[in-house]
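yo, Ammonium transporter is done. seq:
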Amino acid sequence: MSVAWLNTGDNAWQLTAATVVGLQSVPGLVVLYAGIVKKKWAVNSAFMAFYAFAAVLIAWVLWAYNMGFGNQWFPFVGTPHPIISMQDELKQALIPASNTSAAFPMSTMVYFQFVFAAITLVIMAGAVLGRMSFRAWMIFVPLWLTFSYTVGAFSLWGGGFLSSLGVIDYSGGYVIHLSAGVAGFVAAAVIGPRLARDRENFQPNNVLLMLVGAGILWLGWNGFNGGDPYAASRDAGAAVLNTNIATAVSVIVWTIMDIFYFKKPSVIGAVQGMITGLVAITPAAGVVDGWGAIAIGISSGVIPWLSMNLLGKTALFRKVDDTLGVFHTHAVAGLLGGVMTGLLATKAGCAAFSLSTPGGAIEGNWHQVWLQLVGAAFIIVLNIVVTYILLKLISLVVPLRMSEEELLIGDDAVHGEEAYAFFGDGERRPVTGD
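structure:
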């Protein structure tokens, strides 16, 4: 039975956008992680991402969705409550605290928001690969979702105090990437580094598989940023185009930086530049124009590169073992994108996205830059405090790190499984001439 509020085109686009965002995690980041780590960690790294996707969904429908997008409980979080009854699933999508409605059912909204929550945990996993206990990760995922992610989501997207102030986060530069980058860095510091031999020799075991994951991640971002107007609208099209412009520019700029500094173009470097471009355009995608997207792409190819390759060589960053550089690719790029949103947001883009904000500094509204900094500060402090406390509490129940045997051997010791049908570094069985 049809209902007056349902727009089948909007519903079809939203389900498609949600599905391609889901593909960014499974299989996108699953295979990217499996390829970018050394062979003995391929299964564990992929499985951490795979598990997070499943665990987040169950917590999401039982209590977490309504904490992020339901009725206000506190100015920064909604009331925990299940959202899986047929009555809930069939009614019109509504975010009550922000009075935002959409022309598709709640089931579509819940699934769309789930894939964003899931990829946040999957991204964070990249900072602690190669030493975090899988059992600790199993406990950490639903707890961090509950006490950190939902707070950021409600505050910025669900009608909380940051959205009321006017902070712009179009599609998750703060809620997802700044959160994951900061939390991942804190987790890496608390859990401790990988074995010295792994830090010194961590060559990717399959660069081509890594590129497959990177390609899925890039194209999946069309749903990531194109789905946030909650409609198959003109702003969705602008967001998709701007996303790809910024990303392409960032890849090229990062590659040029590699050539000048390292004298060689690096595929892994290009993938890092791709990620920083995607992340930096995310808070701005639908509110800047193409020139703004180019400016963001240039900045995301330069500043995170400097952060990773210069700041990353300092004593603090050598001490904290962020396995895949999640702090640089997500926290730095997410903060950069949020600040540049304050600089480059246009009146037309804000109006198309139904924001009352009259654009950013480029339109004479320098106050928007201050608001973006306030929003970033809240997300940073939230994730430092919550992540540290949760990990310390979990450590009272299970060890945060794998055992020494598991760290030496890898997948075969942790899961009893191996990524490929040949043996080498870290395996129990000796290498033979077969």
